[in-house]
Amino acid sequence: MRRFHPTEGARVRLVCLPHAGGSATAYFPLSATAAGQDFEVVAVQYPGRQDRRAEPCLDTVAAIADAIADDLAGWSDLPVALFGHSMGATVGYEAARRLEARGNPPLGLFASACRAPSAHRIEFIHQRDDDGLIAALKELSGTDAGVLGDDELLRMVLPAIRGDYTAVETYRHLPGVEPSCPIQVLVGDTDPVTDLDEAGAWRNHTTGPCQVKIFPGGHFYLNDQLNAVLKTITTTLAAWQPGIYRG
User: Where is the Thioesterase TesA-like domain (predicted)?
Assistant: First the structure.
């Protein structure tokens, strides 16, 4: 867990899960924008990247979700809400299932730019060669432009990216108890990866309420919509746990 901006007096911890190929620093802008709120942003650093680059990647959603659920046992001083973007939303959903089974369900799940777990597509990006994998990254524009322009650096992080794509593309939703926590879906109106029907299908994956919020933009809409996303997070958290916010 990486906490970029400690928040004194925080009443909720928002645990953020990166997209495929992403790292904890993907949420640094959200953390900075949220400074002064009554919740704190904590981002998960998956193994195989940045300061964990020497560690082997986890290449199944189940393994990542298991590790996160285990780690969150040490962060029980505050109610936890999960925010996952793209692959991170699927990981967050599976982590929520595990937390629910342990009797400690999250306050809620923000599922951003991600098809519902049961809205599966057959994809094989993880089986492409390095050039094909790089082309897929450039199509979505989710990887830092400095990384995409530095061939040596890009190829250094490709194992982690391939591991993440393997996790996403081999994931299959298994029947079982769905989380009871509410789900707030966020999606860009021109997202080429997640259409609105697939986003709406998240309603089938909670026994609680589920709402869909549409933003202008593509798969990485949140890069340009930080203030609007922050407003949605703040009002949603307040609705999930009334009375905890000043406003």
Answer: 15-237
